[in-house]
Amino acid sequence: MSRLTAELKAFGPELSATILEIYLRLDEVDDVVESNLRNRRVTELVTNIDKTKQQINDVFNDLIKLLNNRRNTLLAELETIRRDKEKELKEQGARDIKIQKALSGYRVSLRKIIGDMNMPTEAKRAKVAVIADEYKAKKDLVPNVDDITLTMASLRCATQPMEQ
After folding, report:
1. CA distance 112 to 109
2. 58 Cβ partners below 8 Å, 6+ apart?
3. DSSP strand E in the chain: where?
4. Which residues form a coiled coil (predicted)?
5. For residue 153, how many other CB atoms are within 10 A of its CB?
């Protein structure tokens, strides 16, 4: 400011006052322009931030939709698998019941053969062996079926005396 004051003195008091006034007004205008620029930048930044927030919200909404769609798809697949498994278990249960009935029939046949006093022992052994093989084949289809009937039939045939 001292340099400006020295230059202004060279112009005289009236002209110096006018130039100083112009200089001060230019300084005010410069401050206003600078303030306006700052306000514009702030406004632009706020606008950009708002746009970015909206874009982020849109992306999250899309992501939520995708996740919900995927979840619903997986739930539908799980429900289909559950129904298929239920159906398979019902069918397996029905097969197991049929096999259990057949096994029960084999046990009855074995008891009849063993209890038949008119049949020779060799014939009993042959018939029991055939039925035992069928029984074993069926038994393998059903887990946890005990071998007691087969064991008992074999023991009974083995303990009966050989007929001559």
Report:
1. 5
2. none
3. none
4. 64-95
5. 24
